[in-house]
Design brief:
- Helices cover 44% and strands 13% of the residues.
- It is of the alpha+beta class.
- Among the domains are: 184 residues, no CATH class; 154 residues, no CATH class.
- Strand 11 and strand 12 form a beta hairpin.
- It is globular, with a radius of gyration of 23 Å.
- It binds adenosine monophosphate (AMP) and magnesium ion.
Length: 500
């Protein structure tokens, strides 16, 4: 076994070129800390394409030396591992002290497109923010985050990424012992709404200002010279998050635990815990076993979006205007724009899902009526949109068969076809455009569970196959019908759990 804090300088070894701006700029928002050693690590999955994108050497990393880094057994040269501090509203209640209890930021690299990216280990042991937790993660949840995050990326949705997953060779104790694992996660940053709340809760004005300045520099350089940069910063975050949640809604994704500590400033999806994709369309869908009141139900996500962003606004009041009332007024104006902004993004996404390329005032009603018919007919969300294009190609049965009451769908489809005529686009052109926005392959819950169960038995083949399918979600492949099908109907509703 390699010693936990060994530093490498050998040029043949994986090299990262770390440039750690967070550690340099934001004292008070982190604690330096080392990973705990892993007894017998094994590489479960490695993301070559992402390594290349990060400007890293995939061959050097897909090795024993890479494994030593991804397991936390070796600290690569230039890394200054740290656990970030944050607070957060969890299910509406404020927790002033959360932070990376099971994660370590190894450092930041500048990728091949000149973007600054965080490289983080998740599950690498206790940190000063672990509270009662063990700082560990299990194979199942680590691979779940890997799979769903990479699927989201392939779907074109802003997200953190997975560079590697390793098993540690040790058991982690949840309800029963589980095989331990570590995820190497890549993010445009790990700054959360909760990071701002952490500084604000301590009344540390200068530190919150420094955090805002840092976040502007890192994510929203275009507003650095704005007349009111902190107000513009808030508006920029609301815009990014409204766009993100609209994408989730367009694709049937339920995050499951939209606490403010799980909402990024960058607008990337983060912290895949109890998340899942909806099968048949039901706006009240909740998968998470701990979301008893449906706070984070599918249809409630846009509401929570505004609620969480309001928590961010509260941390910025004193920077927006010296006159508190004026500051509140300005921030409130921006908060009031969140809902319409979200709706604009959502509607644009839905228009393209049903093949519309122009705007008509009646489109909203047309789309909402389809959703109603889907809800009443218990139709599969993903497949309805995908098969609408087949209807344009002359096969209406495929989509019709998804509804318990096909007649109601037919009535809607006649209106839809009339509306498409208005656009005057050739049917095949329109169908092709629809197939580029409506995936055929999403991480179906039963497929994810199958892959994770096999991985727990040391069989990574189903995981790799599923990952390969999900990496091309819009390209239908003969022989992969099984991956497109919804879960067989059972009397036990699908449940997800938090314990990464
Ligand atoms: P999450 O539910 O993943 O968003 O995590 C909420 C908070 O609990 C974060 O501060 C985590 O770092 C912390 N946490 C979750 N699991 C563990 C664990 N096994 N050990 C230590 N901290 C944890
Ligand atoms: Mg979290």
């Amino acid at each position: 076994m390699v010693k936990p804090t060994e530093t490498m300088a050998d040029p043949a070894r994986p090299h990262f070129n770390f440039d750690n701006s967070f550690a340099r700029s934001l004292e008070g928002f982190f604690k330096f800390c080392q990973a705990e050693p892993a007894a017998d690590p094994k590489l479960l999955q490695f993301n070559h394409a992402l390594a290349e994108e990060l400007g890293l050497d995939p061959v050097a990393l897909d090795s024993e030396a890479g494994l030593a880094i991804f397991s936390g057994n070796v600290t690569p040269e230039g890394s200054e591992p740290l656990a970030q501090a944050y607070a957060g509203h969890q299910f509406g209640g404020f927790a002033p002290q959360l932070g990376d209890g099971r994660a370590l930021l190894l450092g930041e690299v500048i990728d091949t497109r000149q973007r600054r990216r965080d490289i983080q280990l998740k599950g690498s042991g206790r940190t000063p923010f672990s509270r009662g937790g063990d700082g560990k993660a299990a194979v199942g949840p680590v691979l779940r985050e890997y799979l769903i995050g990479e699927s989201m990326h392939a779907l074109g949705i802003p997200t953190t990424r997975a560079l590697a997953a390793v098993s540690t060779g040790e058991a982690v104790y949840r309800e029963f012992p589980l095989p331990g694992a570590i995820l190497t996660r890549v993010a445009s940053s790990h700054i959360r709404v909760g990071t701002f709340e952490f500084g604000a809760a301590r009344g540390d004005v200068d530190k919150v200002r420094a955090l805002a300045d840092y976040a502007i520099q890192r994510h929203y350089t275009e507003i650095a010279d704005a007349e009111n940069p902190y107000l513009s910063f808030f508006a920029a975050v609301t815009d990014a998050q409204a766009a993100l949640v609209a994408r989730w809604m367009n694709i049937g994704f339920i995050h499951g635990v939209m606490n403010t500590d799980n909402m990024t400033i960058s607008g990337e999806t983060i912290d895949y815990g109890p998340c899942a994709f909806m099968d048949s369309y039901a706006p009240g869908t909740v998968f998470s076993s701990i979301d008893h009141h449906g706070r984070y139900a599918y249809a409630n996500q846009p509401v929570i979006l505004a609620w969480n962003l309001t928590r961010l606004a509260e941390t910025l009041v004193r920077f927006v205007d010296p006159d508190k009332d004026r500051a509140m007024e300005l921030l409130t104006e921006t908060i009031e724009r969140i809902q319409p902004l979200y709706e604009t993004y959502w509607l644009a996404g839905m228009r393209s899902k049903i093949g519309l390329s122009t705007e008509d005032p009646l489109d909203l009603e047309l789309i909402n009526d389809l959703l109603s018919v889907m809800e009443e007919g218990h139709a599969d969300f993903t497949l309805v949109f995908r098969r609408l294009s087949q209807a344009l190609r002359g096969n209406s049965d495929a989509v019709q068969n998804l509804f318990e009451e096909p007649a109601a769908f037919d009535v809607w489809a006649q209106r839809w076809r009339k509306r498409l005529e208005q656009d005057g686009i050739a049917a095949e052109t329109c169908a092709e455009a629809m197939d580029r926005v409506n995936p055929i392959y999403i991480p179906r819950n039963h497929k994810v569970e199958e892959a994770l169960a096999a991985a727990n038995r040391d069989d990574m083949v189903p995981f790799s196959e599923l990952l390969a399918v999900l990496s091309h979600p819009f390209d239908e492949v003969t022989g992969n019908e099984d991956y497109a099908a919804p879960a067989p109907v059972t009397d036990r509703p699908y449940k997800t759990f938090c314990g990464t």
